[in-house]
């Protein structure tokens, strides 16, 4: 049987796009360029890109205890390593990269970014001091700044609004897939060969995936009808001002920032909590939490995306309301998981809470794309991630680590971390409240 030639297929698809554009009705949209099969292929590639991004971002969580032992680091230093050292460039570079993505070739942006963060992850495995490692994590964050905004922007052009939340849900499921791979695969390598080998392995895998990404993805702007014209270029500050004038955008942004404080501030310490409280080793804790996270994410992201599309088809505000109440419902589930006396009970409750935690993501980002406008897709996501990562990812782990160090003096290492995590989980309530407020303004602020 003859193996299909990928480059030949791309050439045919290019010709098909040119033909479609030349004969296209004036109201044709970017997603009309592609068949359902094309979209599935593109979504699969973007899913793998997202998985690589989240593996390299989250693998630090399963390595913290070994790094702590080798470098005699405090929990605050570990929070710095897992938080601000990564988030600093991840947040600040996201906006200029997003402007490039809004005006240029998004698949090129994604390919270059994937190459950079993979190489920097390899460098993490070659470091010999704590501060060398922290500096290398800055480089990983700089590369990953070009991952999610351009990918979501492409998805919004690949899929019509009626199917967008489900597509975003599948794509965002890569965060849990990456988290699971980081914990299970990274934990196994770290247990067998040490934390440096774990960095080397995942970094090399990502670097090898970059050429395929550039070969397979398509950029709708290559079709003349959908090219960004110079007169359509909107200054960065103008775009940001337009976004912040919208009450729906401001509330969605606030919800995501607070959500990230828990999702990353607390989650980065869950494996350490299992090790300290339940006596598991690195591989056991990583596998347990990785499997639970992956299973919960499959149900949460897919179910949340499908439900959000159905609710939003009836009323655009219902998807946002679903996200708000979902976050509020997740808080007591996480609190009960942290208070559980056994690993089995904790894992069951973490599974339920992860379903709620991941199920709110598709409607949150679908609502974001609903109000941002087509020429601000990447910048809207980048601005959101700027604040979410700088405040949520940047300071969430540091705040959690500081709380843990403070409470450890009174309650011991295990209980101090438990109480710190339980305190941070309370932020679910204001996050949900912001999404409920966003729902009130969603219809008025909607923009194609």
* Mean of residue pLDDT values: 82
Q: Can you tell me the residue ranges where pLDDT is under 50 for at least 5 consecutive residues?
A: 1-25
Number of helices: 20
Give the H and E element order.
HHHHHHHHHHHHHHHHHHHH
Number of strands: 0
Q: Classify the fold: give the CATH topology.
A: Growth Hormone, Chain: A
Give the N-terminus to C-terminus distance in angstroms: 45 Å
What is Rg?
Answer: 21 Å
What does this structure look like?
The protein has 448 residues and is mostly helical. It has a single domain (45-218, 235-445), classed as MFS general substrate transporter like domains (Growth Hormone, Chain: A). Helices cover 82% and strands 0% of the residues. The protein has 20 helices and no strands. The chain has helices at 6-22, 36-71, 75-82, 84-92, 94-103, 106-124, 130-144, 148-158, 161-193, 195-216, 236-244, 247-265, 270-278, 282-314, 316-339, 343-359, 361-372, 377-411, 413-424, 428-445. Helix 12 packs across helix 18 (377-411). The longest helix is centred in the N-terminal third of the chain and has 36 residues, at 36-71. Residues 1-25 have low confidence and may be disordered.
């Amino acid at each position: 049987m003859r193996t299909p030639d990928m480059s030949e297929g791309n050439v045919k698809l290019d010709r098909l796009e040119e033909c479609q554009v030349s004969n296209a009705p004036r109201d044709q949209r970017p997603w009309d360029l592609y068949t359902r099969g094309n979209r599935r292929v593109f979504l699969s590639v973007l899913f793998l890109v997202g998985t690589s991004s989240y593996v390299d971002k989250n693998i630090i969580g399963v390595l913290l205890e070994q790094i702590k032992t080798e470098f005699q680091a405090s929990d605050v230093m570990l929070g710095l390593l897992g938080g601000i050292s990564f988030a600093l460039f991840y947040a600040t570079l996201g906006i200029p990269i997003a402007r490039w993505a809004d005006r240029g070739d998004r698949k090129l942006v994604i390919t270059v970014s994937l190459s950079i963060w993979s190489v920097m992850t390899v460098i993490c495995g070659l470091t010999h001091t704590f501060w060398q490692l922290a500096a290398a994590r800055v480089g990983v964050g700089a590369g990953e700044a070009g991952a999610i905004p351009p990918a979501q922007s492409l998805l919004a052009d690949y899929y019509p609004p009626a199917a967008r939340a489900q597509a975003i849900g599948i794509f965002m499921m890569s965060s849990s897939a990456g988290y699971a791979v980081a914990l299970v695969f990274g934990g196994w390598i770290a247990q067998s060969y040490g934390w440096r080998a774990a960095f080397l392995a995942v970094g090399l895998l990502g670097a090898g995936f970059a050429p395929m990404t550039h070969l397979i993805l398509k950029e709708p702007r290559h079709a003349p009808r959908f090219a960004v014209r110079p007169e359509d270029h909107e200054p960065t500050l103008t775009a940001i001002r337009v976004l912040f004038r919208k009450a729906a955008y401001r509330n969605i942004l606030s919800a995501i920032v607070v959500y990230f404080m828990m999702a990353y501030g607390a989650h980065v310490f869950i494996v350490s909590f299992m090790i300290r409280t339940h006596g598991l080793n690195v591989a056991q804790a990583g596998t347990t939490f990785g499997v639970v996270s992956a299973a919960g994410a499959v149900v949460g992201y897919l179910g949340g995306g499908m439900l959000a599309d159905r609710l939003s088809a009836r009323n655009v505000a219902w998807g946002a309301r679903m996200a708000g109440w979902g976050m509020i419902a997740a808080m007591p589930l996480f609190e009960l998981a942290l208070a559980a006396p056994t690993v089995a009970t904790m894992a069951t409750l973490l599974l339920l809470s992860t379903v709620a935690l991941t199920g709110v993501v598709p409607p949150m980002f679908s609502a974001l794309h609903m109000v941002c406008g087509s020429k601000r897709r990447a910048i809207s996501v980048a601005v959101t991630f700027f604040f979410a990562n700088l405040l949520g990812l940047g300071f969430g782990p540091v705040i959690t680590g500081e709380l843990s160090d403070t409470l450890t003096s009174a309650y011991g290492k295990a209980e101090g971390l438990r109480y710190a995590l339980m305190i941070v989980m309370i932020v679910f309530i204001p996050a949900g409240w912001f999404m409920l407020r966003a729902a009130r303004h969603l219809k008025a602020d909607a923009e194609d």
